[in-house]
Amino acid sequence: MTTIDPVWAGVAELSQAFGARTLSPVDAVDALLARIRRHDPALHAFIAIYADEARLAAEGADRAIRAGQRVGPLHGVPIALKDLVDLEGRVTTGGSKVWAGRVSTVTATLAERAIAAGMIVIGKTHTVEFAMGSWGTNTHMGTPRNPWDAKVHRTPGGSSSGSGVAVSAGLAPIAIGTDTGGSVRLPAGWCGIVGLKVTAGRISTFGVLPLSSTLDTPGPLARSVEDAALLYRVLNGPDPDD
Predict the structure, then answer these.
(1) Which of 13, 77, 112, 135 could form a disulfide with 9 if both were Cys (CB 3.0 to 4.6 A apart)?
(2) How far from chain centre, in Å, is Cα 227?
(3) Residue 2: inside a domain, yes or no?
(4) Per the domain annotation, does 206 fall within a domain?
């Protein structure tokens, strides 16, 4: 029996519900995909949605949890990735039509770590072109809409604009952004959520399209400090590929 709303439940709540088997990863993914279909045409948070793959991964996570093979507290939790993060075989545009056909040949270390922890990638979120901007606007790919105003198209902050909107609007419980000069912190502040800008080098940037290779820092956008900390623990650590 579902005891929490999977759309608005945080990472910690989902983890507890999955462990207690009062909610399944399939329930959570289905609810989020339904909400994305209903609201993202207006909000424009996602550039790509991996519906079929996410549901298959959710079914696999559900089987593993039921079999007592849970790999950690984030097993089965959905996550959205900023469209700077490479997934092998998937397009990473960096928010630019110039790279509209750029198919990734590697998977970013941070994505590998999230997937190894059992997380389910539901899609990629819009970004300012080449992550170079703080308002969250993108003339060519479209500007995500700040979910706090349904009447006026207000900007959500950037450059991790889609990630901020997705988490704030209940389209994903948590998302990855990148921050060079405020690109996690600004959408977090403008969208009323939590953003963690970590020390450079704490989370690998391998497989993440760079703006500044010495300043870029990937980090979580979440609806609570607890949720951000849970993801940070999974992503944190040295990477010889950096």
Answers:
(1) 13
(2) 12
(3) no
(4) yes
